Backbone:
């Protein structure tokens, strides 16, 4: 065998020397032919025993021992029936219970504004003030006009009592004196006429004078009435100017928060110009859409539990108003609830999920929460039938840490595996006593 190996080496060396004398285009083919010839030579001269060796020893088959482990023991729990609330889920948005744009009532330059975005205000709290100087001067002017009217009625300039005795006023007293004098003169002349001392014409003149004085007495009384009316008018003007002065102070109409500030100090604002927008934060108004199939079970006064995204707390409220119609576009009933928000953590405009309690003592099926397996949004429980695991798809509603309400998939008295773990459908198990 060594001689054959040496002969092969010599053949390869000869082909290498021949390659150096050949053109470059055929050198590769020459080397390939030399290797082929050497291989053929080796195969023909190999010992028969080496050529006839088997290619692969057949693998000895070993039989694996069969699994003889006992079935896994599982604990079971029966589906219980318990009196639970029956609820209807509705989605909606929170809105401010009241929203008002506070405006100025009298024109003027804005002297100060004490609120800004998010400021909490109480009812009656001052939020802004108009410059008061002009309105203070108007009050003084109207006060002087009242004093003048009181003096013309014979009253002191100051005071709040405007009652007078009409017959004791100076104008009426003067007119009455003239009337009494004219009447006395007429009576005296009438006596003289009866005695034939004076002519009749003088009595006629005295009679006419007496009638004139009576008319002047009535005029005096009417003048007093007119002065009383002027005093009432001056009082009204004074009250108006005082009200205008008071209106320069703008107050919050209700408890709430400032949603938007719409004016700044120094601006001249006309009557009705907006200052700020206030929203009432407690309670809030929830407008939710109830599916048509659940509309018949929703009534005014029912309890509502409200939750929002990112807030684990549950807020309570009550159904306050129901729409009289079903919306044709989406077949929904619009329900409004008043939600308590004493801490101010809820905000108008937030998307909310509402659970409306339609029946407070409805009998429902419950299973332990830990017995439920959820995969890809599908809830399942495991039951045992003929010693093997069987999966059942269920529909759930309310869920707590201990129990979950089941609406479909189980019946009262069924048993479920309390700790499913890694159990698979069809796996053999033993039920613990």
Residues:
């Amino acid at each position: 065998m060594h001689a054959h190996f040496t002969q092969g080496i010599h053949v390869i060396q000869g082909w290498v020397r021949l390659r150096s004398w050949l053109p470059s285009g055929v050198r590769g083919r020459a080397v390939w032919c030399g290797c082929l010839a050497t291989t053929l030579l080796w195969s023909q001269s190999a010992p028969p025993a080496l050529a006839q060796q088997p290619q692969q020893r057949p693998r000895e088959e070993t039989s694996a021992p069969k699994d003889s482990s006992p079935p896994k023991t599982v604990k079971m729990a029966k589906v219980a029936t318990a009196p639970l609330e029956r609820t209807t889920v509705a989605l909606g948005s929170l809105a401010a219970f009241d929203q008002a744009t506070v405006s100025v009532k009298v024109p003027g330059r804005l002297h100060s504004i004490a609120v800004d975005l998010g400021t909490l205000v109480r009812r009656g709290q001052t939020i802004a003030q108009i410059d008061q100087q002009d309105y203070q001067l108007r009050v003084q002017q109207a006060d002087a006009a009242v004093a003048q009217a009181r003096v013309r009625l014979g009253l002191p300039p100051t005071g709040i009592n405007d009652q007078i005795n009409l017959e004791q006023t100076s104008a009426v007293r003067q007119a009455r004196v003239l009337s009494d004098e004219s009447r006395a003169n007429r009576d005296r002349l009438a006596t003289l006429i009866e005695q034939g001392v004076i002519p009749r014409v003088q009595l006629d003149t005295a009679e006419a004078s007496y009638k004139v004085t009576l008319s002047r007495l009535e005029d005096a009384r009417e003048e007093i009435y007119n002065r009383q009316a002027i005093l009432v008018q001056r009082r009204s003007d004074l009250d108006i100017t005082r009200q205008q002065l008071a209106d320069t102070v703008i107050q919050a109409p209700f408890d709430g928060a400032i949603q938007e500030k719409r004016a700044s100090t120094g601006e001249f604002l006309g009557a009705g110009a907006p200052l700020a927008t206030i929203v009432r934060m407690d309670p809030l108004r929830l407008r939710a859409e109830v599916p048509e199939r659940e509309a018949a079970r929703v009534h005014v006064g029912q309890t509502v539990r409200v939750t929002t995204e990112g807030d684990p707390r549950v807020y309570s409220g009550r159904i306050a108003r129901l729409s009289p119609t079903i919306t044709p576009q989406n077949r929904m009933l619009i329900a409004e609830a008043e939600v308590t928000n004493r801490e101010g953590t809820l905000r108008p405009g937030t998307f909310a999920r509402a659970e409306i309690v339609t029946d407070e003592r409805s009998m429902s099926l419950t299973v332990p929460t830990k017995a439920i397996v959820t995969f890809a949004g599908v809830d399942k429980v495991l039951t045992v039938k003929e010693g093997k695991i069987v999966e059942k798809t269920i529909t759930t509603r309310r869920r707590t840490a201990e129990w979950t309400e089941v609406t479909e998939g189980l019946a009262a008295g069924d048993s479920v595996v309390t700790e499913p773990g890694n159990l698979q459908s069809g796996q053999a198990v033993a039920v613990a006593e």
Remarks:
- Residues 200-247 form the longest helix (48 residues).
- Residues 1-5, 18-26, 40-67 have pLDDT under 50 and may be disordered.
- DSSP finds six helices and 22 strands in the chain.
